Amino acid sequence: MSIQIFILSRLMKENTYPYKLKKQLSEPIPLDQLSGLTESKLYYHFDSLAKQGLIEPVEIIKEEHRPDKQVFQITAKGREELPKKIYKLFESAETISDMVIGLANLKYVDREKTLSILGKKLKDFTARWEQIMNFEKPIQQNKGNENLNKFLGGYFSSKADHTIYWLEETIKQIQEGKI
């Protein structure tokens, strides 16, 4: 979904073709390599978006001794679907890193709706974590597993604290208009 949001958001700015996007992603930082985005994946998502009617070809650039380049534009349906895809991304994201492409494209969504989604995510995560922490109290610990239990407890507690902190920070940054 992130790749499709990326493509649609780029097409909101200008018509383009897959190879150009791939090249833009690789310079100056190789974001394509860091994200595992191959040229074939990019072409696959362009094709998928076209089949959904969210983008359409508008031009074919022909160059001698080079493959033809099919230039795409976003459709009215694509403009309508982009915010929905971004909201869905926020709803399904498990970590802040899953939200990066959505955060980079907040200008295409209603900030209050985004804050509502993230607020619910924070509330649900916090409630789930508190419920898990309450299970720990009545459980009798096996003497042979004390170190493992302590290690895992520390790991999951730290991870939960980290998730809560960054969800709160993301909400704060959006509220303050910093992102």
Automatic annotation (TrEMBL):
Pfam family, one: PadR
SUPFAM superfamilies per UniProt: Winged helix' DNA-binding domain (SSF46785)
InterPro entries, A to Z: Tscrpt_reg_PadR_N, WH-like_DNA-bd_sf, WH_DNA-bd_sf
Organism: Pseudobacillus wudalianchiensis
Transcription regulator PadR N-terminal domain boundaries: 7-82
Gene3D superfamilies: Winged helix-like DNA-binding domain superfamily/Winged helix DNA-binding domain
Descriptive protein name: Transcriptional regulator
